[in-house]
């Protein structure tokens, strides 16, 4: 009886582990908004003034920072930079500092500078998405491992159950000693 309780307890723990991992992945997928530059993207350059380009880039950068780090889009660039520095996120810090410079320090940045910053930003987004993809694959591998472990545990439990039945049958065949 003691051995079977251990197996049942282990099965419950494994099941809960698999369940929590599954729910975490499901929640992550729900949160994920994939960011791609398409024809109707606000980051298109044609026909926009430098100020319009800066504003659309500002919105896109703030949106991605919120997605990756949970920092509010309503904060100023300076406040966002401080938050990123606290969290030690150098790639987005550099991009955000350049954007802040373009808004407040330079008189009027050229379209070339804005395009260069946009490219840096898109490269960083692509890099972050690749990292997320790898993390997703690792989570799936862990779940797969836990599922295999759970199957193995079920097999062991079934063998234990069959072995107990076999032992009961053998014990029933052994003649009992008469009591004095």
Task: Domain count, please report it.
Answer: 1
Strand residue content: under 5%
Number of helices: 5
Strand runs, count:
0
Globular, elongated, flat, extended or rod-shaped: what is the shape?
Answer: rod-shaped
Radius of gyration (CA) equals 29 Å
Structural class: mainly alpha
End-to-end distance, in Å? Answer: 30 Å
Helical residue percent band: over 70%
Description:
Helix 1 (2-31) packs antiparallel against helix 5 (111-173). The protein has 180 residues and is mostly helical. It has one domain (2-173). The chain is rod-shaped, with a radius of gyration of 29 Å. The longest helix has 63 residues, at 111-173. It contains five helices and no strands. 77% of the residues lie in helices and 0% in strands.
Short description:
The chain has one domain (2-173).
Properties at a glance:
180 residues; 77% helix
Outline the secondary-structure elements.
Layout: H1 2-31, H2 50-69, H3 77-87, H4 90-104, H5 111-173
């Amino acid at each position: 009886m003691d051995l079977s309780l251990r197996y049942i307890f282990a099965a419950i723990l494994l099941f809960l582990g698999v369940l929590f991992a599954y729910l975490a992945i499901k929640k992550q997928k729900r949160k994920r908004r994939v960011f791609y530059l398409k024809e109707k993207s606000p980051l298109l350059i044609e026909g926009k003034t430098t100020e319009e380009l800066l504003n659309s880039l500002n919105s896109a950068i703030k949106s991605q920072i919120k997605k990756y780090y949970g920092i509010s889009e309503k904060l100023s660039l300076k406040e966002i930079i401080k938050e990123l520095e606290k969290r030690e996120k150098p790639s987005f810090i550099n991009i955000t500092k350049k954007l802040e410079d373009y808004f407040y320090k330079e008189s009027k940045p050229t379209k070339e500078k804005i395009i260069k910053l946009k490219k840096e930003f898109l490269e960083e987004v692509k890099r972050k998405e690749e990292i997320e993809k790898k993390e997703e694959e690792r989570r799936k591998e862990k779940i797969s491992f836990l599922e295999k472990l759970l199957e193995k545990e079920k097999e062991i439990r079934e063998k234990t159950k069959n072995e107990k039945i076999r032992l009961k049958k053998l014990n029933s065949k052994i003649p009992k000693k008469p009591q004095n």
